[in-house]
Amino acid sequence: MEPLHEGKLKHLEELATGIRETIIETLLEAKSGHSAGPLGMADIFTALYFHILNHRPKKPDWSDRDRLILSNGHICPVRYVTMAYAGYFPIEELKTLRKINSRLQGHPHRGVLPGVETTSGPLGSGISQAIGVALTARLDNKKYFVYCVTSDGEHQEGNAWEAIMFAGKQKHKLNNLIVIVDRNNIQIDGFTEEIMPLEPFVEKYEAFNWHVMEVDGHNMTEFVDAVNEAKAIYEKPTVIIAHTIPGKGVSFMERDFAWHGKPPNKEEAEQALKELRTLGTRIKSEHE
Amino acid sequence: MSSNMLNLEAKLSSKIFDSDIEMVPTRNGYGEGLVRAGKENKNVVVLCADLTESTRSHLFAKEFPERFFEVGVAEQNMATIAAGFGISGKIPFISSYAVFSPGRNYEQIRTTIAYNDSNVKVAGAHAGISVGPDGATHQATEDMAIMRAMPNMKVLCPCDAIEAKKATVAAAKIWGPVYLRFGREKSAVITTEGTPFTPGKAEVFWQSRKPECAIIACGILVHNALLAAHDLEKEKIGTIVLNNHTLDPIDDRVVKEVAKKTGAVVTVEEHQITGGLGGAVAEVLARVFPVPIEFIGMQDIFGESGPPHDLVEKYGMGVKDIKKAVKKVIKRK
Predict the structure, then answer these.
(1) Is residue B96 less than 8 Å (CB to CB) from chain A?
(2) Which of B78, B80, B150 to mutate to test the interface with A (most CBs of A within 10 A)?
(3) pTM (2 d.p.)
């Protein structure tokens, strides 16, 4: 995979901003759903779908595709919007999110929407499913990579650590497994370190024999470089702990756990869209 | 006149009513079935949670080490890793005791296997009170209810080791999630290789000339049902014994047929009387042909330690209990 050059980076950043706007519009239309996580992960999903993944949106069941398993299903608005932008289904269909007879279930469901690899929502069981898929690739001599996006909060589930323990067993050589943790420090009831501390997070993964990297989850160049490094690691699985800002791009949602599980109302959405529409200029000035 | 009214077409063991009938645990059939399924299809993989020998998965592990995965004491992880295998082209079997799987990992099975429509086979060994000395913590008596209530999940409870092997081989060929239930203790081998077995199709094992009651049974208690039928025949009470190995989807055509022929039903299972075979039969008959039903099984109670046979008797699933239930239900007509 190519590192990101400046032109492509600019293009992806604009795309990510567009995806954030569409997330807000989609949540407003749905009248329920999660805001903070999807906005926080917009940069990573943009980088995955538009630069990293080896996939064919028009042929979602292509057998050699990289698999993207979303463990924390509740952030699916960012996955749906990014998939629509990538051409998996019409952008117009996003208006059906969480409504009756929709392919866009409140938490993603495999089978109804091509391109969604697993049904998810109940937390802590994505990494182990990714392990199963990665082991299949091993047995079948397939070259695809398995990416698993998880939240930090769901690492409070026992199932997650059972999976991390299994994957770290050297015999399994799961170097085709790349876990991405959305380290945004919030969960429904508050801040992770107050609810049930996860730190020292890096050391925990290292103790389970994983290759661990930390990145700024809003710096796509850093993230792409980390994925390239992960692909080069031979003897163990990799976890990329991506530090993100929940609600990123909308000032009144950023870092506020109250926005974990609710959508904006009309006024809030208007305010959010206004901020996002000037975000490009703000990013530019930050860069300068 | 002979009191033996075994259905000849079922090609059952000639020793059913003899004391020297061969005794083999149904879990052995699982182990042998896995090896056969593994030979037939290279996509079969087996996972186990630190109970490899006890679930008889070791037979597969020995034959196909590269397709066997030991996950340690982690049933939730076992179910979800299997879910990943099942959505990517493999046919995983997960093996543990039924109290742990589908007990401990119920939600993982529901979301990542059943709702996810992943091609996983869940094998619950050590089911029922006949687990014996280990006590109630290890005696699964609610597993069939849990699995039967789950959409997308098929539920099979074979009656002996031979049928267990057939069910295991068949499960690998069925698309989608399947639950297979096995016992720990040695139990009578009542069928033969020639006994018909098709998932979803109940088989008549005993057919009196003038049946007054149908005994619908599953699992190792099918033997007790046959022993009861044999005794009742001597008392001039005719019955039909149905081996109903598939609880979901239940063979509603045959269940209705035997209810219509007899006008009274007794269900027999090594499981709580709610939600398992009794529940399934009652649901069918309430809809299509209501008749009086008596339920043999665990009466909303946990078991305890003890010798398997004595426990079966103590908790009301013995031959005499079945006979009593038959007589009672006939009176209720």
Answers:
(1) no
(2) B80
(3) 0.95
Per-block mean pLDDT, blocks of 10 residues, chain B (333 long):
85 96 97 98 98 95 98 98 98 98 98 98 97 95 98 98 98 98 97 98 98 98 98 98 98 98 98 98 98 98 97 98 98 96
Domains present along chain B, CATH in parentheses: 8-22+195-331 (3.40.50.920), 24-187 (3.40.50.970)
Q: Which of B81, B90, B94, B104 to mutate to test the interface with A (most CBs of A within 10 A)?
A: B81
Closest chain A C-alpha to B83 CA, distance in angstroms:
6
Which are the catalytic amino acids of B? Answer: 75
Smallest Cα distance from B318 to chain A, Å:
41
Burial class (CB in 10 A: 0-12, 13-18, 19+), B202: buried
The residues near B70 (Cβ < 8 Å, ≥ 6 apart) are B47, B48, B50, B52, B61
* A136 touching B (Cβ < 8 Å): yes
- How many CA atoms are closer than 13 Å to the CA of B55, on its beta-carbon side? 28
| In contact, B264 and B213? CB cutoff 8 Å | yes
Q: Write the DSSP string, B289-318.
A: ----EEEEEE-S----SS-HHHHHHHTT-S
Instruction: Note the pLDDT tens digit of each residue in A87-118.
Output: 999 999 999 999 999 999 999 999 999 999 99
The DSSP secondary-structure symbol of A4 reads P
Rounded to an integer, what distance in angstroms lies between the CA atom of residue B101 and that of residue B81? Answer: 14
CB contact under 8 A, B76 and A162: yes
Q: A83: part of which helix (H) or strand (E)?
A: helix A76-86
Q: Which domains occur in chain A, in start order?
A: 6-287 (3.40.50.970)
Question: What count of CB pairs under 8 Å joins A to B?
Answer: 96
Read off the tokens for B229.
Answer: 């039928």
User: What sign does the CA torsion over A6, A8, A10, A12 have?
Assistant: negative
The C-alpha of B75 sits at a distance from chain A's nearest C-alpha, in angstroms, of 9
Return the structure tokens found at B156.
Answer: 């099979």
Provide, as residue numbers in chain B, all residues whose Cβ is less than 8 Å from the Cβ of A135.
69, 81, 84-85
